[in-house]
Amino acid sequence: METQSQWGSKLGFILASAGSAIGLGAMWKFPYVMADNGGAAFLVIFILFTMLIGFPLLLSEFVIGRHSKTYSTRSFGHLTGNRVHNLIGHLGNIGVFILLSFYSVIGGWILIYIIRTLFALVTGGKQQDYEGVFGSLISNPLYALGGQALFIGLTALIVAKGIQNGIERASKIMMPLLFVAFIIVIIRSLTLEHAMTGVSYFLKPDFSKLSADSILFALGQSFFSLSVGFGGMLTYASYLDKKTDLTQSGLSVVLLNILITILAGLAIFPATASLGIEAAQGPGLLFIVLPYVFDQLPLGQLFYLIFLLLFFFATITSSISLLEINVSNATKNDNNKRVKAVILLSIGVFALGIPSALSSGLLSNTKFLAGTFFDNMDYLVSNIMLPLGAFLFSIFTGYLLDRQIAHSELVTKPYQEPLFKIWIFLLKFIIPLVIIGVFLSLILK
Ligand code: PHE
After folding, report:
1. CB of 30 sitting under 6 A from ligand 1
2. Ligand 1 pocket, residue 21 CB under 6 Å
3. Half-sphere exposure of 284 (CA within 13 A, CB side)
4. The listed CATH number (3.90.1530.10, 1.20.1740.10, 2.60.40.10, 1.20.810.10) that belongs to domain 10-443
5. ipTM for the whole predicted complex goes beyond 0.95
6. Is the pTM of this model over 0.90?
7. How far is the CA of 274 from the centre of ligand 1 (A)?
8. From the CB of 24, is ligand 1 less than 6 Å away?
9. Hey, where are the domains in the chain?
10. Are 48 and 223 contacting, i.e. CB atoms less than 8 angstroms apart?
11. Name one GO cellular component term (predicted).
12. Is the per-residue pLDDT at 439 higher than 80?
């Protein structure tokens, strides 16, 4: 029997969706790619893609989820009467399983650094040889796998408690804390010497640095960081009542995501600039550059701890949405089966994640196709499955879904009528074309 869950409030739904969106994409990948690709020029392109591509896709996930009121591997066929369409849901269901398997590796690193920094705070020791420490921690199988297991375990604990008591409650606590932590770190960053050099480096547009690759990345990022293409937002919207305005809620999620992207830059660049460090340091930014930066400051380790916690909140609110997609499909929304499904799926995710966790250590020399096992999983999900999912979502909504269904879900006020027409136009013509263009340029590269 289906015992369909519901969000307790509209705010809970928005915070959970924003929590899913805001994650490693916006806070970890974005700042260093942006620093490398023309600063604000890149931000402008990203915002454009987010509004014209990510946002319409987010609304299409919302429409399908709320109208079908069911899990993602059933919702498509349920709306059109053709079960073949459920393949879109299956693609996403497999995609998130793979994504969580390596997302949790980074989540594990964050947890390990939280524990380390807590210790350093208590013992008053300074961390030295930042690069060496990072390298030896993530290459140690005990830490890499232990951190990953712990991260998956925490995700599982929240998801096992269900929609209102688990996901909604966690989001309502963590998302406001995330903002508070951000404000603290940004004030600290902006009051450093030379902070403005960092701000202008971050905000001054340099269009000459924009390459074809940066445009591709900005596009991929517009799906990834809004969590669209795999049915995560569909799943969350299936727990939503009929009263909530989808366009407004979607816009809130999009704006929060853009805001956080900018805040992340404001937290990081002034701090690195004040010490004259190049910010474009790749993934090591959080674990190598920032601990160094903060160690130079009074109370620096405390600020670094807050920074890490901020990353932890952002990451886990995304990973719970990833696991929830699998759980809703595995249980067919029968809450009595939730705990068992959470346990089995978490074990599965961990097992698949083992080679990814070991990719920075034991398996670092085992390379094929795109690089290490981790790199391959990332490539498969971010460059192939997610754009494919996004493409299918746009085709489904633009061509296969009854226009009346979408209309009834989105247009509740007269001013939304013209927006609806633009939305359909983007989904039918622009989004599929842009995605095909990106695919081709990746393959022909
Ligand atoms: N949006 C998340 C991030 O930026 C990742 C994600 C993708 C989550 C797809 C759910 C579904 O980290």
Report:
1. no
2. yes
3. 17
4. 1.20.1740.10
5. yes
6. yes
7. 31
8. yes
9. 10-443
10. no
11. membrane
12. no
